[in-house]
Specification:
alpha/beta, Methyltransferase, Methionine Synthase (B12-binding Domains), Chain A, domain 1, Rossmann fold, 2 domains, five-stranded parallel beta sheet, 9 helices
């Protein structure tokens, strides 16, 4: 098995220490940082995403795989920056005003990172203006809103409106999700997209960013 395949397989199994060592080995063997990222780490994370979508693995496995990805990314990040490898896009993610649930939002963040995006985590109970301000400050092309309560999902509309009010419509796309959220609701409030789970959120982010 090639080094890159070993990185991918160990990431799928959530073996953080092994992933870190293999990434170090690949760097020492002069494998290109972009190949380590794309054919090793991201390839593994994409398989975990597919399995999660198909209910073949569950939240704990995704968290463990994401931890393994992080251990490899820590070493790779400075090299990627030095090699001029650009992220696929930047997403500001947050749980909307009034809502403290963050497990789903965090998973979405991890899958977005796993898909090659830079993620700015705005946290929980986030004011709509704060989301937009962070998007501006970080030149983000995406805002991801999470809500788990029927009483707070309506605050997603405020984010869509704040994006409009700042003239960022078309530049910053708003995607939404969370257990009570539906595509019909996304259409109703004028959000750019909805996804039912973290792996689909990564697919949606790529679609909205026009990248593969
Ligand atoms: C854990 C939990 C809590 C924890 C949260 C801890 C934390 N750090 O997040 C605590 C105990 C704090 C909590 C508090 C409350 N909770 Co609560 N909670 C839950 C519970 C059990 C699980 C939620 C969860 O984490 N699911 C797992 C994650 C992985 O799933 P997920 O969030 O849906 O995310 C996935 C997708 O939705 C999607 N997704 C999520 N976000 C995004 C964003 C984008 C952009 C995209 C594209 C996709 C996406 O991808 C994720 C991964 O696949 C749910 C019940 C349930 N089964 O959903 C109740 C639930 C959401 N809670 C509920 C309630 C009522 C409350 C409280 C009001 C209780 C109270 N009386 O105090 C408070 C509200 C506090 C507040 N202001 O937010 C109700 C909501 C009812 C409703 N319809 O509004 C639920 C449904 C329980 C119930 N059956 O009554 N809760």
């Amino acid at each position: 098995m090639s080094l890159l395949e070993q990185i991918k397989e160990n990431l799928i199994k959530g073996k953080a220490k092994e992933v870190k060592e293999l990434v170090e080995k690949a760097i020492a063997e002069k494998v290109k940082p972009a190949d380590i990222l794309n054919q090793g780490l991201l390839a593994g994370m994409s398989i975990i995403g597919e399995r999660f979508k198909n209910n073949e693995v569950y939240v704990p496995e995704v968290l463990i795989a994401a931890r393994a990805m992080k251990s490899g990314m820590e070493i790779l990040k400075p090299l990627l920056a030095a090699a001029g490898v650009q992220p696929k896009g930047t997403a500001v993610i947050g749980t909307v005003k009034g809502d403290l649930h963050d497990i789903g939002k965090n998973l979405v963040g991890m899958m977005l990172e796993g898909a090659g995006f830079r993620v700015v985590d705005a946290g929980i109970n986030v004011e709509p203006d704060k989301m937009v301000q962070l998007a501006k400050e970080n030149s983000a092309n995406l805002i991801g809103c999470s809500a788990l309560l029927t009483t707070t999902m309506t605050n997603m509309k405020l984010v869509v409106e704040a994006v409009k009010a700042t003239g960022l419509t078309g530049k910053v796309r708003v995607m939404i999700g969370g257990a009570p959220v539906t595509q019909a609701f996304a259409d109703e409030i004028g959000a750019d997209g909805y996804a039912a789970d973290a792996a689909s959120a990564a697919d949606l982010a790529k679609k909205l960013s026009g990248v593969r």
